[in-house]
Every structure is written in structure tokens, then in C-alpha cells.
Write a structure and sequence with these properties.
By secondary structure, the protein is mainly α. Helices cover about 80% and strands about 0% of the residues. The chain is built from 8 helices and no strands.
Length: about 240
């Protein structure tokens, strides 16, 4: 009976984390749309509903602690709960970054547009795609898909670096519009952080499935002799 009850609670925990993932993915989608449209009302909606993510995050953490205390799970079950605790935290952080983006959009939406030689479309698309891939990997327990997310992080970092340089130059040329341009720079930074958290999610999915810790670039160091779950790394990835 105890084992059946544990499995039932683990199944419920999985439903809870997947539900939170769907909510967070929707917030990211809304944030990306708000960037493109400079929609202050949509940005306000993201900020207003952030409490829903926070409440779910606390509920999942409490559920994890309850299962640990009552059942003292081991092996695969323990690994699952540890991974869920970390995934839960990263999902809440992704939602926070979406809310931060919304605050920047609220500011720039009421200002005259400044022309800068940088298009957020590709960066936003990649960050959004990484979140989606990580959550798909979680839903389907697909370690190959999770591993591919790791390969996209450097691309987002590079785009962020380009944005930083271009916006910094624009601030020098247009100091009177510094506040507007700084908000554009912050949007780039928040998108880069979303990509970082998506990478963390993917790493925890790999740990959940394989028991392999691939944080801190360990997967890159082992590229010449990758573990079995990494062998589809070189397959092309499209985010369009």
C-alpha cells in the first residue's frame, strides 16, 4: 500500500510540474509577443499574473518535501524528486525574467521609438524555442532533445554580446535616449537569462533520466567520447 501511495504521489507531482511548465511557457510566449508589439497592456497582464507562478512553485516545493519526509524514497524516485525541486526553481526564475521583460516593455511602449541596428526577433525566438524544447524533453523524458538545448545556449550568448555592443554604441551617439536604450539592453539580458534557465532545465532532465550530471560544461569536455545519450548532438536544429 505504501509503495502504491508513493507512486500515486509521484504521478501527481509530475502533473504539477508539467502544469507549471505550461504556464511558464505561455508567459515567455506573451513576453516575446510584447517585445515585438510594444504592447503595454500585454506586459501588464504578464506582471499581474506572476503571483500564479509563485504560488504553484511554493506548492510543488512543499509537495516534494512532504514526499521526502513521509516516504524517504531512494534510487530513481529520489533522483526524480531532486530534479523536480531544481526544475521547479528554474521555471519560477524563467517566469520572473518574463515579468522583468514586461516591465521594460511598459517603459518603452510610452516612449518614442529609437532606431538601433539590432533585431530582437532571432534572440527571442531562440530563447523561446529553448524553453519549449526543455519542457518537451521533460514531458517525453527525451534525453537527446534535452541535450540539444545545451548546444543553443552559446548562440544566444553570442547574440546578447552583439546586442550589448550595438546598444552601447547607440547610447554614446544618442545620450538623451539613454533610459530607453538601457531598457532595450535589459531586455536582451533577460532573454539571455531565460536561455540560461532553459539550459538548466535540460541538464536536470538529463540527470533525471540518466543520472548523469552535465553541468559546468562537462558535456563539452567529453565531446570526443560522449555518453550514449549525447550521440545525436550533431544533428541539425531549427528554431523557425
Amino acid at each position: 500500500m505504501t509503495e502504491k501511495r508513493l507512486q500515486k504521489e509521484l504521478d501527481n507531482l509530475k502533473k504539477m510540474i508539467l502544469s507549471l511548465g505550461a504556464m511558464v511557457e505561455e508567459r515567455v510566449r506573451m513576453a516575446v509577443k510584447a517585445i515585438k508589439s510594444r504592447d503595454a497592456d500585454l506586459a501588464s497582464e504578464i506582471i499581474r499574473t506572476d503571483y500564479e507562478i509563485d504560488e504553484n512553485e511554493v506548492e510543488i516545493e512543499e509537495e516534494c518535501l512532504k514526499i521526502l519526509a513521509l516516504h524517504q524514497p531512494v534510487a530513481v524516485d529520489l533522483r526524480f524528486i531532486v530534479a523536480v525541486i531544481k526544475i521547479n526553481n528554474d521555471l519560477e526564475r524563467v517566469a520572473d525574467e518574463a515579468s522583468n521583460i514586461a516591465k521594460c516593455v511598459q517603459f518603452i511602449a510610452h516612449e518614442d521609438k529609437v532606431k538601433v541596428p539590432f533585431d530582437y526577433n532571432m534572440m527571442a525566438q531562440k530563447a523561446q524555442f529553448m524553453v519549449k524544447m526543455s519542457l518537451d524533453a521533460l514531458v517525453n523524458l527525451d534525453e537527446d532533445l534535452a541535450f540539444r538545448v545545451l548546444t543553443l545556449d552559446d548562440e544566444v550568448d553570442q547574440i546578447h554580446g552583439e546586442a550589448h555592443n550595438q546598444i552601447k554604441g547607440a547610447i554614446v551617439e544618442q545620450p538623451s535616449r539613454a533610459s530607453y536604450l538601457i531598457n532595450l539592453l535589459l531586455i536582451s539580458r533577460y532573454l539571455e537569462r531565460i536561455a540560461d534557465h532553459a539550459t538548466n532545465l535540460a541538464e536536470e532532465v538529463i540527470y533525471m533520466i540518466e543520472g548523469e550530471i552535465v553541468r559546468h560544461g562537462k558535456w563539452a569536455l567529453e565531446a570526443e567520447n560522449p555518453p550514449a545519450f549525447c550521440r545525436s548532438l550533431c544533428q541539425p536544429i531549427r528554431c523557425d
